[in-house]
Amino acid sequence: MLIVSSSVRAARLACALSLSLLAAAPAVLAHSRHSAHHAHAATPAPSGKVQAQNKALASGNVVQAASAFRGTRYVMGGTSRSGFDCSGFVRFILSATDGVALPRTATEQFYHGAPISMSQAQPGDLVFFKNTYKHGISHVGIYVGGGQFIHAANAHKGVRTDSLNSSYYQAHFAGLRRVLPAEMRTAGALR
Predict the structure, then answer these.
(1) Confidence of residue 35 (pLDDT cuts 50, 70, 90)
(2) Which of 6, 16, 113, 142 could make an S-S bridge to 177, C-beta 3.0–4.6 Å?
(3) Whole-structure pTM value
């Protein structure tokens, strides 16, 4: 596990914000070429949704940050705001909020961290599922408490919150892992 200071976390957030602005650059350039008669082309500010996501990521609260991305589309292999798959979503959120470096796939993430029981589950723990679209560990989400988890579900549903008590998730449940360091589990870190 990797513990990163708040100054490094702030630098990561600044980098993420810069990347979101760079992603918008082609559209801004095309607009400025189209509007060549204007003397100054303004760079658009990040949308309200992006600003809310950035604020949630900066909070260091994994559940708050993950929740800010509800409605983001699912993209197989996706690792960014434009679309996530399940493991890309978990990796992005934990890296951006707490500096926890996770492997890329759900299978690799399953073997990272300490296994815990459902009775020990706390917000920010990872919840894993098996045999969903392929044999073995095939899906991961972030436990948010109260028997709920947030995840990049699939191409039809995107990032959403679901119940671990649903018959589908009960049938495919594979276990929980704790990857956040103890100091990130204080009341201040997970508000």
Answers:
(1) very low
(2) 113
(3) 0.74
